[in-house]
Description:
The protein has 3 helices and 6 strands, in the order ββαβαβαββ. The protein is of the alpha/beta class. It has one domain: Tetrahydropterin Synthase, Chain A, CATH 3.30.479.10. Helix 1 crosses helix 3. The mean pLDDT is 97.
Amino acid sequence: MLTITRKMEFDAGHRIPDHNSQCRNLHGHRYTLLITLTGDVVQKDGASDNGMVMDFGDIKALAKAHLVDLWDHAFIVHEKDTAVRAFLDSMPGHKTVVIDRVPTVENLAQAAFDILKDVYHDRFGRHLSLTKVTLYETPNCWAEVDG
Ligand SMILES: Nc1nc2c(c(=O)[nH]1)N=C([C@H](O)[C@H](O)COP(=O)(O)OP(=O)(O)OP(=O)(O)O)CN2
Ligand SMILES: [Zn+2]
């Protein structure tokens, strides 16, 4: 199977409230997101995307609009983390993303996959699908979701 992958990076804060070590503290990461797509290679002489599954620029623009710009420089907090939510709410205009699960890299990768799969599915009327999302929380720790 032919796949293509676009890498993007964003910064976000989080904490894992019940963690028995450092990760219960407020902290942040520079996340690396890998978006892997499969689909038919465009065969259209003269088309800008001739020979491509999807233009990497279009993959980036869609990821930014639907995910990356929403999470970048946000604090991602579990809806049940009431202490931190109250603190964040006390700062007018703070960029906060409330999610329905603990913001581990596993859960963030799954949330990213769930958002992006519909964004890319058969985009531009072409056979196209999201096959994998990989999210690095640190250079040493990551999660992968296969579609
Ligand atoms: N399975 C998971 N384990 C941990 C997660 C997670 O999301 N899923 N998250 C954390 C921390 O939030 C942090 O992201 C990882 O910290 P750490 O283990 O310190 O990672 P480093 O790459 O910095 O570790 P080094 O030992 O310095 O290589 C913890 N666990
Ligand atoms: Zn962390």
